[in-house]
Structure formats: C-alpha cells, structure tokens
Amino acid sequence: MILMLKMLILVTSLNIIKKLMSNAIVIKNKIKQFDNKIIVGGDKSISIRWVLFASLANGNSIAKNLLISEDVKAAIKTIRKLGMLIN
C-alpha cells in the first residue's frame, strides 16, 4: 500500500513537471550587451524581477522608483546573502 502511494505521488509529480515544461519558454539567443534604459512605473512584481535580473547582469545596475515593499526587501536580503553588493 505504501509503495503504491509512493508510485502514485511520483507519477503525479512527473505529470505536473511535464505539464509545466510544456509551457516553458527557451531563450536561445540572449542579449550579449544591453546599455540602455527601461522606464516602468513602481510595481512590486516588477521591482522583485528587477532585483533578480540585476543580480544576474554584468556591471552595475541602477533602479529608480523601485517599490520598496516587504517582499522587495526580502528579495534584496536574499540577493545580499548570495554575495551581491547592493547599496
């Protein structure tokens, strides 16, 4: 009975992963260099994404009008724990 339950969980998990992967987007030609500005209004989701994208970018990233919510502060704290320098 326990083995059957474990197998059911495994099959269900694999089906969920397969479904998620069918909606995946693969970016093959990444931007090699981006030296421009993107201007958007302050928004929690965009602010968190900016923190994540900036942590992956080479060089310095500067944000203006970031929405500093508790979630954004948590994202910044996490990035700092990973060793990124944030002023």
Question: What would the keywords be for this entry?
Answer:
87 residues, elongated, 53% helix, mainly alpha
Structure report:
The chain is 53% helix and 0% strand. With 87 residues, it is mainly α. It has one domain. The mean pLDDT is 79.
Could you say which structural class the secondary elements and strand pairing correspond to?
mainly alpha
Q: Assign a percent range to the helix content.
A: 40-55%
Cα-atom radius of gyration: 19 Å
The N- to C-terminal Cα distance equals 55 Å
- Number of structural domains: 1
| Cα shape | elongated
Count of alpha/pi helices: 3
The SSE string, one letter per element, is HHH
Strand residues, percent: under 5%
The count of DSSP E runs of length 2 or more, i.e. the number of strands, is 0
**Mean pLDDT rating:** 79
Would you identify the regions where 5 or more consecutive residues have pLDDT less than 50?
none
Biggest beta sheet summary: none
